[in-house]
Design brief:
- It is built from six helices and seven strands; from the N terminus they run αααβαβαββαβββ.
- By secondary structure, the protein is α/β, with parallel strands linked by helices.
- It has a single domain, classed as Rossmann fold.
- The chain has a seven-stranded mixed sheet, with helices on both faces.
- β4, α6 and β5 form a beta-alpha-beta unit.
- α2 runs antiparallel to α4.
Length: 190
């Protein structure tokens, strides 16, 4: 998978990712933060999948994770880029509370959790990510409104076939990297 992430992971980052995985199983799974059948797939399907969002980006100035849920992909990205401010945004107060607990347990000073509707966001971050939270057309509207003019937006989903969206580049991650073929939609400045 390292070839697909494009960034190295040191031993302390690996330890934090393992702590996050353990937290997902012990706390997020029992309260519905991830599905009940996902415990056996957390490493490859959730942690590794989230790290793939780093492939098309240099170390960003700030990341907004829209519809973050249990902190995916934002928390793994915050671990990978410890000097980058990461804002986890979700409209669910339960999800926001869950993510705040994970941030405290993992001691991630670069992460802030926002309980907010996407339509009420203010600002222009250099990087926007979203994983299985919104359809590409809704993200496209948010990206056009908020993304810094030199920024990059990366969207992943649980698509069963290659997605296509006008204005987005598609990056295919082969089946042998995760437990299935996945695609990332990427929008860069023209």
């Amino acid at each position: 998978m390292g070839d697909h992430v494009g960034h190295g992971i040191d031993s302390s980052q690996l330890a934090q990712l393992i702590d996050y995985r353990d937290w997902l199983v012990s706390e997020a799974l029992p309260v519905g933060g991830i599905g009940p059948a996902e415990a056996v797939r957390i490493d490859r399907r959730h942690i590794a999948d989230s790290l793939l969002f780093a492939a098309p980006m240099e170390e960003p100035g700030e990341i907004w994770d829209l519809g973050s849920g249990a902190g995916l992909p934002g928390i793994p990205l915050a671990i990978l880029f410890p000097r980058t401010p990461v804002v986890l945004i979700d409209r669910s107060s339960r999800s926001a509370d869950l993510m705040r607990r994970a941030v405290r347990i993992l001691d991630l000073p670069n992460v802030r959790v926002e309980h907010r509707e996407i339509d009420h966001l203010r600002g222009s971050p250099p990087t926007i990510v979203s994983r299985a939270a919104l359809p590409p057309e809704k993200i496209l509207r948010v990206v056009k409104r908020h993304l810094d003019h030199q920024g990059v937006a990366i969207v992943g989903g649980s698509w069963t076939r290659k997605p296509s969206a006008p204005g987005w580049e598609t990056l295919e991650i082969p089946r042998d990297v995760l437990d299935q073929t996945v695609w990332l939609l990427i929008m860069r400045p023209p």
